[in-house]
Amino acid sequence: MPLPWRASTASSPIRPLWNHEQPRRLPGSFGDPAFLQMPKSNLHAHLEGSIRPATWWELAQAQGLDLGIAPEAAEAAITVDGRERGLADYLARMSRTYPVLRTGEALQRRASEAEEDTALDGII
Ligand SMILES: [Zn+2]
């Protein structure tokens, strides 16, 4: 069974951990409201794969990197939602975040935000 935030159906696109504005519709037993109240642990997450789009954009600007897209296109450029054309497309989206995470300062910010995001998701 896929992890809740990796669920991919036409009616339930993947939502990254940082999106706290929309309630999750989880597949199968994960949809049980009692499940949502249960404490959870995060066994595996990629800092580059769950970066906040705003952070990605801000770090690129601070580092003088040209992402080649407009700010309003940042989220779509790195969000994986199940509509990718295959593994190469999926990996291309993920790899767009790598260039901004090559400094200690950037990694420290990203790790701090990951901690905040998982706490907001109820992950202990
Ligand atoms: Zn992994």
Describe the structure.
By secondary structure, the chain is an all-alpha fold. The protein has one domain. Helices cover 37% and strands 0% of the residues. The chain has 5 helices and no strands. It has helices at residues 33-37, 53-62, 74-78, 87-95, 104-120. It is globular, with a radius of gyration of 15 Å. Zinc ion (ZN) binds at residues 44, 46.
List the helices and strands and how they pair.
Layout: H1 33-37, H2 53-62, H3 74-78, H4 87-95, H5 104-120
Relevant terms:
single chain, 124 residues, mainly alpha, 5 helices, 37% helix, globular, disordered N terminus, binds zinc ion
Care to give the gist of this entry?
This protein is mostly helical and 124 residues long. 37% of the residues lie in helices and 0% in strands.
**Which ligands are bound?**
zinc ion
The radius of gyration is 15 Å
Helix content: 25-40%
Largest sheet: none
**Content of β-strand:** under 5%
What's the overall average pLDDT, rounded? 80
Which consecutive residue ranges, at least 5 long each, have pLDDT under 50? 1-20
- How many β-strand stretches? 0
Question: Which oligomeric form is depicted?
Answer: single chain
Domain count? 1
Order of helices and strands: HHHHH
Distance between the termini: 21 Å
Shape: globular
Query: How many helical elements?
Result: 5
Q: What is the structural class?
A: mainly alpha
